[in-house]
């Protein structure tokens, strides 16, 4: 097995007495699109800054291409960073902005211009070479920043919430473009965001962070379908969470006692263990259906039409503290005030250690 492109080993960091990263280890493969996903204060931006050389970790090491880069300044490591505010030079043309890194490397003017034009063509802005940044839209300026970062052919491209300043439609468009560009150039991208939809749209390697630690990592499909922790289940998409205690475990089936009664599901957990049962909204069935796990009756409190589905919040009749979150078909006749049965399939319940 080949060595990872980026190898973060036991990295911790403190700002004064505040620990913002706590013994983080992470391997990133060549050509991957890695998303660092987490809420504000989870440590994801600090980790990106350590990778870019803007922060030296209090403890631990960072290796890129097998070389120890822990103490190297940004200009001497094989990374470039795209910031949320783009950081373009307003007095320079777009071509000048894109070629700036090459200029700092001593590349001659003719070569700079050629490479800058190629990079702009890569991001769909071949005609913008002689324009000034203020003549471009937000999405176009984002693409210029991307071209400027890619033109120096870094081993790793770091993106710090690069789509945060864009409106929803443009953000979706840029997600598609970012993924397509990453596949064309083959550079490893490491992208920080707190947007779960963005993470699922872009990543082939999703890293969920919380309180300075990595909670979960892997393919986004796995992290969503079978999250490793309760935090991951609630941050990477929504879940209804049931607290339970295992009363029986045999032959790959666990039975847990919950406020809604006993629930049996596939899994492994010892008798007496405290567990959490997570159910994704799309697996929650409203109304009479032949699901194998009945969750009792619930009163619908809110129904929000969201285009392809209706997001339904309903309060359990058996446990008023429990709120079911469900995705119902857009054509469903459910409305606020209805009292309806709720159920799901046992195989769709996620068993988590609490």
Structure in words:
The chain is an alpha+beta fold and 354 residues long. The chain has 2 domains: 229 residues, P-loop containing nucleotide triphosphate hydrolases (Rossmann fold, 3-Layer(aba) Sandwich), CATH 3.40.50.300; 116 residues, OB fold (Dihydrolipoamide Acetyltransferase, E2P) (Beta Barrel). Helices cover 23% and strands 37% of the residues. The chain has 9 helices and 20 strands. The strands form 4 sheets. A 6-stranded mixed β-sheet has the order 6-7-8-3-9-10, sandwiched between helices. A 5-stranded antiparallel β-sheet has the order 13-12-11-14-20. A hairpin with a 2-residue loop joins strand 12 and strand 13. Helix 4 crosses helix 5. It is elongated and about 75 Å long. The mean pLDDT is 91.
What can be said about this structure in brief?
The protein is an alpha+beta fold and 354 residues long. It has helices at residues 44-52, 94-98, 100-104, 109-122, 138-150, 168-185, 196-202, 220-225, 230-235, and strands at 6-15, 18-28, 33-37, 59-64, 67-68, 79-82, 156-160, 188-193, 205-210, 213-218, 240-250, 253-258, 261-266, 274-279, 285-286, 293-305, 309-316, 323-329, 339-344, 350-353.
Question: Topology, pairings included?
Answer:
Elements: E1 6-15, E2 18-28, E3 33-37, H1 44-52, E4 59-64, E5 67-68, E6 79-82, H2 94-98, H3 100-104, H4 109-122, H5 138-150, E7 156-160, H6 168-185, E8 188-193, H7 196-202, E9 205-210, E10 213-218, H8 220-225, H9 230-235, E11 240-250, E12 253-258, E13 261-266, E14 274-279, E15 285-286, E16 293-305, E17 309-316, E18 323-329, E19 339-344, E20 350-353
Parallel strand pairs: 3-8, 3-9, 6-7, 7-8
Antiparallel strand pairs: 1-2, 1-4, 4-5, 9-10, 11-12, 11-14, 12-13, 14-20, 15-19, 16-17, 16-19, 17-18
Helix pairs in contact: 4-5
């Amino acid at each position: 097995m080949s060595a990872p492109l980026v190898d973060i080993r036991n990295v911790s960091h403190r700002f004064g007495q505040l620990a913002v990263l706590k013994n983080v280890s992470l391997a990133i493969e060549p050509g991957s699109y890695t998303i660092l996903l987490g809420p504000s204060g989870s440590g994801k931006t600090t980790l990106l800054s350590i990778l870019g050389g803007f922060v030296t970790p209090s403890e631990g090491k960072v290796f890129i291409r097998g070389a120890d880069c822990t103490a190297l300044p940004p200009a001497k490591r094989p990374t470039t960073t795209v910031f949320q505010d783009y950081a373009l030079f307003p007095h320079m043309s777009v071509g000048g902005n894109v070629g700036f890194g090459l200029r700092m490397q001593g590349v001659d003017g003719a070569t700079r211009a050629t490479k800058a034009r190629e990079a702009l063509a890569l991001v769909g802005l071949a005609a913008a070479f002689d324009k000034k940044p203020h003549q471009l839209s937000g999405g176009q300026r984002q693409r210029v920043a991307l071209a400027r970062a890619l033109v120096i052919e870094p081993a790793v491209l770091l993106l710090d919430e690069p789509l945060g300043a864009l409106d929803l439609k443009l953000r979706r468009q840029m997600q598609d473009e970012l993924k397509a560009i990453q596949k064309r150039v083959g550079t490893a991208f490491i992208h920080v965001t707190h947007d779960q939809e963005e993470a699922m749209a872009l990543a082939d390697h999703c890293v969920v962070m919380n309180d300075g630690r990595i909670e979960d990592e892997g393919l986004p499909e796995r992290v969503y379908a079978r999250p490793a922790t309760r935090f991951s289940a609630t941050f990477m998409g929504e879940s209804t969470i049931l607290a339970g205690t295992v009363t029986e475990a045999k032959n790959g089936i666990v039975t847990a006692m919950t406020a809604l009664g006993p629930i049996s599901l596939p899994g492994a957990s010892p008798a007496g263990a405290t567990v959490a049962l997570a159910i994704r909204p799309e697996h929650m069935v409203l109304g009479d259906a032949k699901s194998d796990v009945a969750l009792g009756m619930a009163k619908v409190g809110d129904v929000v039409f969201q285009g392809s589905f209706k997001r339904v919040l309903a309060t359990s009749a058996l446990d008023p503290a429990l709120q079911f979150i469900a995705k119902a078909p857009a054509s469903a006749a459910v409305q606020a005030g209805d009292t309806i049965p709720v159920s799901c399939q046992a195989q769709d319940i996620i068993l988590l250690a609490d």
